[in-house]
Amino acid sequence: MPTPRLFLLSLVLAVVSCEAAAPEAERVTLTVRVELAGGRDVGATPGRVHVFADSQPLSRLEAAFTDGQVCTLATTPVTTCTFDVPRFQPVTLVATEPDPAVSVRFAAQAASDTDRDGRYVEFIGWNQCPEAVERGLCVLRPPAATEIVARFQLMQQVTVYQVGVARMDYVTISAAPTLKLPPTSQNILDLAGCRRVLQYGPPCDSVRLVGGAPFHRFTTWVPRQTIVAMFPVGGLETEFIRWDGDCIPASLYAVGTCSLITPDSSRAPILLTVHYQWWNCPDGPRDRNTGTCQLVPPPALRPALTPE
């Protein structure tokens, strides 16, 4: 009869032998298609999907400190990547997107103002996701070869022009944090621009002497549901005339203030033009009569303002 010690030793050896003989987890192919909405070809973009094949699902914070693989939307409109992952084991997909941006540039209107820019894209969703734990994160447990599509779109471009003599302040307010690794609770758009105008403080911009030709004031590339608010102010002797474009007047602030909320689906650049009066002087546009100047348009031809 074997002693208890010998029996225990035999049991341990048997367990070790079984573990050594156990086959590795079966592998399957995971195909990740990263697509840009609208089938647009804008060159390489910074939209990414990070792939983590781990023993358990990961949060965005945990993924930031875990080694994984990346599929970048480097070829638009579609980039396809394949990964070898364990069958039936959790695979965490984490989408990341670049920061939005604002470009403040005082220059004559140009055709290139409306060029689409692939540097600014946002994640909009998966074609399917069994475990959508949080925005931009998906967990799969592939039983066989599996394909998933990560959809991005160009951020909405908003370009603002000015006709006539005025200042032009703006404020942007985002709807959600940017999808990053590690995660962030902020978006650089939050109250970007002239915060003082929200507290009825002095303008941040200076008076720009513009005549009848539109001049570019600023362009934003922003995610969906972002508020873009404009706060123009006339010169010493120039007054607001109108806005061209889809702009919602704001009655809480000075005449001429307006805003918009970007749509859920990115579309062609949104173009807005604010019109103010200007004094046509021998040496160019001015914000007041310096002696022999003419007000354009003259008061008799200035459209009546619609009550807000």
Structure description:
β17 and β18 (258-261) form a beta hairpin. This protein has 308 residues and is mainly beta. Strands 3-2-5-9-8 form a five-stranded antiparallel sheet, with no helix packed on it. It has two helices and 22 strands. The protein has two domains: 26-99 and 117-154, Sandwich (Immunoglobulin-like); 156-301, no CATH class.
Number of strands: 22
Strand content: 35-45%
Give the rounded overall mean pLDDT: 89
Radius of gyration: 29 Å
Helix proportion = under 10%
Shape from CA axes? elongated
Q: Class by helix and strand content?
A: mainly beta
Strand order of the largest sheet: 3-2-5-9-8
What is the chain-wise order of helices and strands?
A: HEEHEEEEEEEEEEEEEEEEEEEE
Q: Which regions are unreliable across 5 or more consecutive residues at pLDDT < 50?
A: 11-22, 304-308
Number of helical segments with 4 or more residues: 2
Number of domains: 2
Largest sheet geometry: 5 strands, antiparallel
Q: Termini separation (Å)?
A: 101 Å
